[in-house]
Amino acid sequence: MDKKTILHILFLLAISAGLYYITQSFFMSLGILMLLLLIDSFLRQYDSKRRREWEERRRQQIEEQNQNKNKQ
Predict the structure, then answer these.
(1) Which of 28, 34, 64, 68 is most buried (CB neighbours < 10 A)?
(2) Tens of pLDDT along 1-36?
(3) What whole-number distance in Å separates Cα of residue 71 and Cα of residue 40?
(4) Can you tell me whether residue 57 is helix, strand or coil?
């Protein structure tokens, strides 16, 4: 595992411990943590999709620039 993944896991563990401390209920903190994980996965999917689209647009721009240079 890379450093970013380990930090993410430690962050989630800290949140779950804090939730348990605040709520004093395992199941309530588990439910809140599940909602947070769901939101996290949606944000990761959104970011990944946006990044792929940006990279594709950038590749197309570079190809167009190369074609224009070759024509000149």
Answers:
(1) 28
(2) 788 888 888 888 898 889 899 989 989 988 888 898
(3) 47
(4) helix
